[in-house]
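S.,

Sequence below, as promised.
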Amino acid sequence: QRQQEFLAISAAVALTAAAIVMLFHVLMSGQLSDQEERKAYIQSEIATLDGQIKQIDELQTRKEELLARMKVIVRVFDEVAHTVPDKIHLTSCQRSGDMFTIEGYSESNTQVSAFLRNLNASTWFKNPVLANVTADETVTKKDLKDNKRNVIATETKKTNKFALRVELESPEPAPEDEKAGVKKTNKEAAK
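The prediction came back faster than expected:
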């Protein structure tokens, strides 16, 4: 009888131990699968954030490029404003690479010549070439009031329509203007 009790107790202990081991195994498997799910979620979020960081870096690079281009554009338009003589009116300024095509009107050919000389002396432009100059007549109408009557007067002005091409002198990469943070051209650095 003792032996039967011993066997029964041993079987109960073995069954209890097996149940505890199975319960432990099930709990650990559940925790492991939960941990694997968390790990997969974190890795997917890291991949998403890495993609966003890459986009932010690309946008930052693009922003810096645009700001650098904007500084050059501002300098170019400032230089154009300084080189245009009085009585010249620009109608078009188009850029293709480093080449600008400028069109406009002047009252005389000497003003066009002065504009070409100013562009050639400029630190931001080089090799200005006059494409064409054509004589043009501009008719303007003016309304004049004379003793309660309207009088329409016409005035004819002779102008010269011109077109020219000029190259942008690329800034040299090394020297920078400390005040403005703008790169200098070869002509500016030589001064």
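Strands lie at 88-96, 99-106, 125-146, 149-168, 171-176, 183-185.

Coffee later?
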